[in-house]
Amino acid sequence: MSKWVPAWRYVPIDYGQEIGVFENITQKCVFTNNLDGEKLRVRLNNLCGDAPMVIQHGAVALRNRVTGRLSPRMTLTLGGREELAVAADSTVYSDEISCPVSHEEDIILYLYFAGRCALRSVCTTSTWQSWQSVQYAGDFTRTEALGFTVRSRLVPALAAEPYPNQFAAGVCEVSVLADDGVKLIGLFGDSITHMSYFSDPLTAMLHARFPGKCAVINAGISGNRIQKSHPVLPDFPGGGRQFGPAGRDRFRRDLYDGAAPDCVFILEGVNDCSHSIVFQEPDIPEAGDIFGALQDVIRQGQDRGSAVYVSTVPPFGAFGEPWREQAEALRCAYNELIRRECAADGRIDLDAVLRDPDDPHRMQEGMNLGDGVHPNWAGGVKMARAVMEKFFAAL
Fold it and tell me: Which regions of 102-192 does DSSP assign to beta strands (E)?
């Protein structure tokens, strides 16, 4: 028996505005694959677009990580046509491509945007391990290019973000028709998941320990809250829409559309503890409100047959802003509820893993990006090792 399993999937972020334009641009993406299969397909993305997205043509190739062998490029089609037209505010799977796929082969996707294409939704990451993207001026779906186009010129809105990132336009998933026994692992959360300093090391560890046996999808959205939708911020680009709907409302959409994860790991709540205070919303949640939303999400996953694992929220306090003390008290109370009362299939205390032993309200030195909130590569590796041994020592 076989089933479609995402070798790669990220959540397309709704920026609530035009963030850039492609015209006469080839985008090349490389996705790390850990699946063996007989076919593959690509999910094209035009979510939030207010007009059809037309990709003149596309191609897929496979590159063996061990031997370096590169397969011939295979033409991507949609409804039998080489022109890939995606309706406004929608996603669609390409036609299936019949070809043997090995877990040692990464998947390379080329998309050529000939005419003007306004972008309102893209997938992003802050790291470069599990996938990479680059954009070129010109049509290079059939030949390789020299040089690249500076991303800031194509998508200036992303260049203004405080942390480095790369993006993929027009695509949100690549799937392989794989063995029915393959396990799919879903990661759900906010920026700590989305930025991928944690998810990329965990993905690499899982691939190394279980070659050909598992895949990981990332359903993080930076700034996301589990209880509430994004704050309404009139002076913020896009009004704050890029922070996404409440986790409890998007959980099924972002993890169970197309394939159901066998297990889900949830790390979310830091923004629930801080955003209402920082942005002066009239209703500031209590720890029980946030915890209730977490319990709701856990039940949603369990009702769909997934094992659901959760974590406490790592430290983000001790920086002196007027809102930090109140937000930190909320985080600590929320974490205690997770430790004592959570209905998940498993729990891990990443607060204890990352906090400074001399100051439990602060993350360990050298484990964050300098803001005290977001783990860096060292912090992400430490988190990934703890999660790996706690939940994924065996599949």
Answer: 105-113, 117-119, 121-125, 131-137, 166-169, 171-179, 183-189
Can you read off the two tokens belonging to residue 25? 């641009």
Residue 173 CB contacts under 8 Å (≥ 6 apart), including other chains: 6, 8, 9, 42, 43, 91, 258
Q: What is the pTM of this model?
A: 0.96
d(CA 313, CA 273): 10
Strands 346-348 and 307-311: parallel
- Euclidean distance between CA atoms 391 and 205, whole angstroms: 12
For 189-236, write each residue's pLDDT tens digit.
Answer: 999 999 999 999 999 999 999 999 999 999 999 999 999 999 999 888
Counted residue by residue, the chain has a size of: 395
Maximum alpha-carbon separation in the chain: 63
The two structure tokens encoding residue 270: 């830091």
CA atoms of 155 and 127, how far apart (whole Å): 18
